[in-house]
Amino acid sequence: MRQIFELRTLNDVLSGLAKRGKQEAMLWKDPAGAWQPITAEDFYARVRTLARVFAGWGVTKGDRVAILAENRWEWTATDFATLALGAVDVPLYSTLPADQIGYMLKDSGAKVVVVSSREQYDKVIACGDLPGLQHVVVMDAGEFPGAEAFGSLVGETAGEDEWFAQSLRSVGPDDLATIIYTSGTTGDSKGAMLTHGNLASNLNFSTFGFHFTAADSWISFLPLSHVTARHLDYVLMCYGAKVAFCPKFDDLAEAMKAIKPTVFVAVPRVYEKIRQAVEGKASGSKIRSRLLRWAVATGAAHRDEVLAGTTPAALGWTLANRLIFAKIRQAFGGRVHTFVSGGAPLGMDTAGWFADVGIVIYEGYGLTETSPVIALANPKEHRIGTVGPVLENVEHRFAPDGELEVRGPSVTHGYWNKEGETREAFTADGWFRTGDIGELEAGGFLRITDRKKELLKTSGGKLIAPQPIENRLKANHLVGQAALVGDKHKFAAVLISPNFGALEGWAKGRGVSAADRQKLVADERVKTLYQGIVDEVNGRLAHHETIKRIEVVPDEWSVEDGELTPSMKLKRRVIESKYKAAIDSFYRDEAGSSRG
C-alpha cells in the first residue's frame, strides 16, 4: 500500500504542526497590505487558547461550531480548536445568502458561529431566531452587538498544556469531525458527515508520487468551506510546507507575485480564465496573436515530451519557451512545479493547451462525501484526459449504467438529519453511488464522462454528455460559461454567457456599441461571432451531439447571482428556470421540425 502518513485523526495534523516550533507555518496579509508570518508554535498556542474558550462555553464532543468566513488564519485556528475538543465544525460558504445560512445553522444545531466580517455578521443577524446558537464571534475589529471579538479570545501563551494534549488524544477516528453542506448542482443541500478517520485516511494516501517538502508553499484561495481546499491545507502542513491565505480571488494575481508559490491547485474555471486572459491579451494585436498561435503550435508538436516530464531540446520550443511560455509561468509567480486541477472535469482542450505551453496539470477527482480524493494523477502516473489512478485505499466498481461506485475508509457514513437521502446514496450492499459516469482505461487510469443526472437524452434515445462539449466551448476566450440543453428533445441547444471583458474589447475594435449588454448580445455581428464558435466545436462532435441553436445571454453567470456553485459548477436547475423562455423558443417548432 502506498501510504504516505500514519494519521489517525485530524488532531495528528495539529500535533505535527506544533513540532515545527519557530518555523514559519503561515502567512496572512495585514490591513496595510504587508504579508505577516505566523510561526508553528504561535499558531498552536492560539488554537489551544481558543479551544479553552470554547470549552468554557460548554462546547463538548459532538457539539457543532459553524465557520462563516473567507480563507484566513482565523478560519484554520477555529477549525483546529473545534476538532481538538472532539466537536464538529460546520464550514459555510461566505457567498451564501442569509436564508441558506439560516437553514444550515438551524439544521446543524450550531452552538457557536465564527464569522469574518460585518457582512457575514449581518447575515447571521438576518437569520432571525436560531434557538441553538449561543455565541457569535467576529474576526474583524469593530462594534458587533451581542458578539465576541475573535482577537480577545486567542493568545500566544508558550509552553505545553496537559489538558489540551489530553483533549487531542481523546478524539478517535470514528468521531465526527465536520458536516459539509454540499451546494449541489441541482439545488439540493445536504450535510455530508465526515469523521476524523475519513479525512485522515484520505490524507494518508492522496499525495503519493508528489514529493512535497518543507520548502514548498501554496496560496490557500479556494474556499476552505470546500473540502478540497481544506484537504490541501492539511496535507501541506503535514509536509511542513507554508500556507499563505488569500481571502479574495481578485487578490490572487498579486499574491502569486508576492508569495511565488511552488504548488498551485485550482478548479478548472481558474485555469480556463488564465488561458482566456492570455488569449484575450494577444487578440488585441495581430503580431501578438500570430506569435501566440505559433508558440502554441510549436508546443503541440512537443506535447508528448512535456507530458513525459522532459524539457524539449528543439530550437523552436526553446525560443517559444523564452518568448511566451516563461511569461505564462511567471503569471503563477514563476516557481510553481506542481499544478493540480479538481472540483470538475478539466477538459481535454484546456489540459492540452496548458501542456502545449509547457505546463502539466495533474487532474484529480473526488466528492465531498469521499473526503474528497477518489483518484489523482501524479508525476509518476498520469494520462491527459483522465483523473489518474484510483487511490489504493478506495475500492471501486461500475454499475451496469456506467455509474462509478466506491467504498473504503474515506467514504462518508451519510447525511446529517437525512436518513432517506443516506439510504438512496448507497447500494444495498454498501457501495456509495458517486452519481458520475466513468470508465477505467488501460493502465488503471480513471476517466469521468459526466454527472449521471446531467446526461441529456434526446427524443431519439441518444445520450449526450454536456460537460465535455461545454468545456470545448469555454476553451474560447470569448465564452465565460455555456449550458447545454435538450433533454427529451430532438436536438441539443446551448445558452452562452459571454466573457464580457473579452467581448467588449472585441466590440470596441469593430465599432460595436458595448454600453448596453442586452443590445450588445442582440447585435447581429455578435450573434455571428458566437455562431462561429459553436460551428467550430460542432465540427468535432458526433451528429447527434451537434448544437442546432444558440442563445447568447446578457448576463455573466456568477456564484453571487446564483447560477454557479461556490466550486464554479453550473446550477442547471437555476439556469433552466431563469432562461425558460429562451429554451422554450429553441423547441417551439420542434413538432414539425426534422432537425436532429
Structure report:
The protein is α/β, with parallel strands linked by helices. It folds into three domains: 11-171, Rossmann fold (3-Layer(aba) Sandwich); 266-334 and 337-452, ANL, N-terminal domain (Rossmann fold, 3-Layer(aba) Sandwich), CATH 3.40.50.12780; 455-592, GMP Synthetase, Chain A, domain 3. The chain contains 21 helices and 25 strands. The strands form seven sheets. The chain has a five-stranded parallel β-sheet, with helices on both faces. Helix 1 (11-18) packs parallel to helix 8 (227-238), helix 11 (286-300) packs across helix 13 (315-330) and helix 11 crosses helix 14.
What number is the mean pLDDT? 94
CATH architecture classification of the largest domain? 3-Layer(aba) Sandwich
Q: Structurally, how many domains make up the residues?
A: 3
Radius of gyration: 24 Å
CATH topology group of the largest domain: Rossmann fold
> What is the rounded distance between the termini?
50 Å
Q: How does the helix and strand content classify structurally?
A: alpha/beta
CATH superfamily of the largest domain: ANL, N-terminal domain
- Given as residue ranges, the uncertain stretches (5+ residues, pLDDT < 50) are none
CATH level 1 class label of the largest domain? Alpha Beta
Note the topology.
Elements: H1 11-18, E1 24-29, E2 35-39, H2 40-56, E3 64-68, H3 73-84, E4 88-92, H4 98-108, E5 112-115, H5 118-126, E6 135-138, E7 148-149, H6 162-169, E8 176-182, E9 190-195, H7 196-205, E10 217-220, H8 227-238, E11 242-245, H9 252-259, E12 263-266, H10 268-283, H11 286-300, H12 303-307, H13 315-330, E13 338-341, H14 348-356, E14 361-366, E15 373-376, E16 395-398, E17 403-407, E18 414-415, H15 419-425, E19 432-441, E20 445-451, E21 456-457, E22 463-464, H16 466-474, E23 479-485, E24 492-498, H17 500-508, H18 517-522, H19 524-538, E25 547-552, H20 572-578, H21 580-586
Parallel strand pairs: 1-11, 3-4, 3-5, 5-6, 6-7, 10-11, 12-13, 13-14, 24-25
Antiparallel strand pairs: 1-2, 8-9, 9-18, 14-15, 16-17, 17-19, 19-20, 21-22, 23-24
